[in-house]
Amino acid sequence: MGSMTIRNLDDRVKEKIRVRAAKNGRSMEEEARRLLASAIDHPPKEEVGLGTAIRRRFAKHGGFKLELPPRDPVRPPPKFR
């Protein structure tokens, strides 16, 4: 079994681990081991772009069609003297 030292751990994080360990009847070291193991066992959520997230959120409502207005021919560019 390996060991590691974590330097510059925020006091707030350490306190939360201490409280969580006490609540679960474990030492802080055991609680930290379980937290690390749990974090490694659950893969991070897939990161998606904004457009994909919006499409996924509203996909259950079905698609819809927009009526696009007809396009006129492009005007010729202005002539400067």
Describe the structure.
- The protein has helices at residues 11-24, 28-41, 50-58.
- It has a domain at 9-39.
- It is mainly α.
- The protein is built from 3 helices and no strands.
Could you give a short account of the major beta sheet?
A: none
Order of secondary-structure elements: HHH
Approximate shape? elongated
Treating each run of at least 4 consecutive H or I residues as one helix, how many helices?
Answer: 3
Q: Quote the distance from N terminus to C terminus.
A: 82 Å
Radius of gyration: 28 Å
Tell me the strand percentage band: under 5%
Q: What structural class is derived from the secondary structure elements? A: mainly alpha
How many strands appear in the DSSP assignment?
0
How confident overall, as mean pLDDT?
Answer: 91
Low-confidence stretches: none
How much helical structure, as a percent, in the residues? Answer: 40-55%
Short account of what is shown:
The chain is mainly α.
Describe the SSE topology.
Elements: H1 11-24, H2 28-41, H3 50-58
Helix pairs in contact: 1-2
For this entry, give a set of tags:
single chain, 81 residues, mainly alpha
